[in-house]
Amino acid sequence: xxxxxxxxxxxxxxxxxxxxxxxxxxxxxxxxxxxxxxxxxxxxxxxxxxxxxxxxxxxxxxxxxxxxxxxxxxxxxxxxxxxxxxxxxxxxxxxxxxxxxxxxxxxxxxxxxxxxxxxxxxxxxxxxxxxxxxxxxxxxxxxxxxxxxxxxxxxxxxxxxxxxxxxxxxxxxxxxxxxxxxxxxxxxxxxxxxxxxxxxxxxxxxxxxxxxxxxxxxxxxxxxxxxxxxxxxxxxxxxxxxxx
Length: 244
Description:
Helix content: 25-40%
Number of strands: 10
CATH superfamily: P-loop containing nucleotide triphosphate hydrolases
Oligomer: single chain
Strand order of the largest sheet: 6-7-8-3-9-10
CATH topology: Rossmann fold
Radius of gyration: 17 Å
CATH architecture: 3-Layer(aba) Sandwich
CATH class: Alpha Beta
Low-confidence stretches: 1-10
C-alpha cells in the first residue's frame, strides 16, 4: 500500500474557508461563512435544503467564486483559482448528480480521471478493494448502471485523482440503505488513509456517525460548529438545529 499523505506544508488545515460571501447574480447566498477541515479529518456540513451547503462547495471548487473572503487548500490561496487547477492541486469532488459520462464505459470514465498530485496515488485495484462489484462493471456503459453503481464510479474517479481532500455532496441521495452504509464506510477508509473529507449530507445520522466535527448552516450562515458527537448524542440540540 502507498504511504499515507504528508501533512500540509504549513502544518495547518487542509482546507480553510474564511469569511466568504457568495452571490448568484445580485442575490447573496452565503453570508460570512467560515469553516476548516484538518488533514485526515471528516467534517459534516449539515442544514435544511436551501441553507447554502452546495453553494459553499461550489465556492470552494471555484465554480461560484466568492465576492468576499478567502479560501485556502493545502496552504495555497485558491480563492480565484480555476476549477481545473484546484482539482490538479489535489481536491476531489463527488457531486450529488455523479456527473459521470453516461455513454462511456466505467473503465474509460476512470481512466480519464487519473491525475498526479503531491498526495498519494490510488490504483484501480485499490478501488476494487473498496467496491468489489466495480471490477466486473469496467466494460459496461455508465448509462446502464444503477444509482449505487454510478456512485461507486464517482467515488473511485475522485480517488484516482490522487486527492488530499474529497468533497462529497449528498452522497447517500437516492441510494439503498446498504449502499449508503458502503459509502459511509468508504469515507471512514479515506480518513484512515489521511485524506480529509468535507461531506454535505441530508442523512444526518449517517453523516454524524463518520464525522469528527460538524457545521450547521441555515439561510446562508453557519449557525453551529462543534464535535459531531455532540450533535449525535444530544437529541434536543439536533432537533433545535436540524429538526430531526
